[in-house]
Amino acid sequence: SRSLAHQPLCQVLIAFQGRQPLVDLPGLDSTLRLPDIGIARFDLSFVFTEHPDAGAGHDLELVIEYRTDLFERTTVQRMTRQLEWILRAVTRDADVSVRRVELLTADERKSLAGQDATGAGITPRTAVSLFEDQVGDAPALVFKDQSLSYEDLNARANQLAHHLIRLGAGPDTLVGVAMPRSPEMVVAVLAVLKSGAAYLPIDPGYPRARIAFMLDDARPMVVVTTSDLVHDLPDTTLTLVFDDDTTRELGGSPVTNPTDADRSRPLLPQDCAYLIYTSGSTGIPKGVQVPHSGVASLAATHVDRLGAGPGSRVLQFAALSFDAAFWEMCMSLFTGGTFVLASAERLMPGPALAQLVRDHQVTHLTLPPTALAQLAEDGLPTGITLVVAGEACPPDLVKRWAPGRAMINAYGPTETTVCATMSDPLDVGGEAPIGRPVHDTRV
């Protein structure tokens, strides 16, 4: 079927007009000029015309015709400069291959380099040190009617961390975490990081075959889990059931922060923080090791560009097995905000999620566009910082949710510590760009 959204034959035309004999009028100079018909016949046209009597080096004229509802004048001017730059490059060296022709002018390269230099100079740190900087009486975590301060959360994580160290956890080791959404899940993740080990998140909802594959492939030294889930793990897996009985047993463990003197060796920013299994292009899950080194830049980006920090309340929407869960943890626990946890039932996109956001006065929410699309028009309060990520965000969602909110589009593969680029607050209309690099990052 035909579409009226574009010219049906072609959208871009490149034409070349060969040498045309000029009319010889005695005593008069004549020049060939294309008539201006006042409309663009194609979306974008490049018409080259030879002029036989022009001076050397000026015998080729270019006229660009474009639709003003599609292109700004500045955009076409930039195209002109780039084309001139390319033509000069190939005329200087006729033997140069096309793939070696520099497409950007010197000014454009300088401009892009300046955009990449975002927050350069951030010192790499471990996730552990970022969290321990926040320790105090401020609320760190809420779940249903339960609330933990940073001091309480830190003490509980320290006790489990010291126990894991006694079991052999430390840098260069891996500890699995297979737990439902709960404060204990967060305690377990922090404890693994504090021990110096990397954590392997295991979604209890995964099929047993996938869990068995991950455990066989990653070979964690131990898996922290619950009494309800331990029977879903392979019999060959060493487990640590983290329940009320374990908590009481850990009561005698130190509540002080583990140090490098306690660990098998010093914990360094280049050490692995977590191992995430992605779907893999071949259909076979692939483990991706993510170091601590990018966490400080991510936390700084959360503070500077999303306004995260003390007073902010960040909802944990993503399952632990997705790196977006670490994004949410970083946005809250590594900046001094409050991490809002909820049961899976209350996180279902729709009225339940909307009510949860209002009940807990959530200030920062990260959702995939497919989940956001299921919320009613009045489902989210104005003033909230709304991040969309995980897939392309269609313009209709931007039109619906951007007004009155700081709506941000984020992008990044797992290997880049969750996020590589982030847009400025989106405006209504047009596509959602992936934006600029996060702090201390170049793309």
Automatic annotation (TrEMBL):
<dbReference type="InterPro" id="IPR000873">
    <property type="entry name" value="AMP-dep_synth/lig_dom"/>
</dbReference>
<dbReference type="Pfam" id="PF00501">
    <property type="entry name" value="AMP-binding"/>
</dbReference>
<feature type="domain" description="AMP-dependent synthetase/ligase">
    <location>
        <begin position="135"/>
        <end position="443"/>
    </location>
</feature>
<dbReference type="GO" id="GO:0005737">
    <property type="term" value="C:cytoplasm"/>
</dbReference>
<dbReference type="GO" id="GO:0044550">
    <property type="term" value="P:secondary metabolite biosynthetic process"/>
</dbReference>
<dbReference type="InterPro" id="IPR020845">
    <property type="entry name" value="AMP-binding_CS"/>
</dbReference>
<dbReference type="GO" id="GO:0031177">
    <property type="term" value="F:phosphopantetheine binding"/>
</dbReference>
<dbReference type="GO" id="GO:0043041">
    <property type="term" value="P:amino acid activation for nonribosomal peptide biosynthetic process"/>
</dbReference>
<protein>
    <submittedName>
        <fullName>Non-ribosomal peptide synthetase</fullName>
    </submittedName>
</protein>
